[in-house]
Amino acid sequence: MSYSTMPEYNGYVNYPTWAVSNFVQNDEAVYEYWTREADKLYNNALDEVEDNQDCEFSAKQIAVGEISLILKEEFEENPVIIVHTEHGASTCDTYDLLSPYTDLLQATMKYVDWGEIAEMLVEGVLDSRDYQAENEGK
After folding, report:
1. Taking the mean position of all CA atoms in its chain, how far away is CA 34?
2. Distance, CA of 118 to chain centre
3. ∠ CA(26), CA(133), CA(28), 5° rounding?
4. Could you list the mean pLDDT of each consecutive 10-residue stretch along the chain, which spans 138 residues?
5. What is the pLDDT of residue 38?
6. pLDDT of residue 52
């Protein structure tokens, strides 16, 4: 089964994509980190397009492609579970929590549409830039 054959969920291609996107958007530190990464990659892509006039991709397409690869690598290769306690949040490596549940969580990651999440992040960067440009003269 691929992510394209799973049912849509809350406007996303499937539930795993929604779940990861929801985590990225709702954890302030995580969202700020990935937004900064998307902004850097978009700036790099703008330079790449400017330097290569024959480039067949837009800066947005390049940035989305780059960030989707990085997201996939980070979430699939470095699985971490955030544990919330009365003393705050802390992280632990999933290898410290070996169980069928962690195996299922890791297996589900292959169904995430990383491009959809990357596009959301890059769109957020572009929206922020548009907002700042509109309000500079005010």
Report:
1. 6
2. 5
3. 15
4. 73 94 91 94 94 89 96 80 57 58 79 96 93 80
5. 97
6. 87
- CB-based contact 69:114 (threshold 8 Å): yes
Q: Could you tell me the two tokens for 39?
A: 């902004």
Q: H/E element holding 31?
A: helix 28-51
**Nearest-5° angle of CA 61, CA 110, CA 7?**
85
Phi and psi based region of residue 98 (left: phi greater than 0; alpha: psi -120 to 50; beta: remaining): beta
Q: How far is CA 110 from the centre of its chain?
A: 14
Q: Which two tokens stand for residue 61?
A: 């397409």
Helix axes 28-51, 114-135, angle to 10 degrees: 80
What is the Cα–Cα distance from 11 to 14, expressed in whole angstroms? 8
Is there a contact between 92 and 81 (Cβ–Cβ < 8 Å)? yes
Q: Which two three-digit tokens encode residue 23? A: 């985590």
pTM of the entire structure?
0.79
Site of tokens 């962690």 = 102
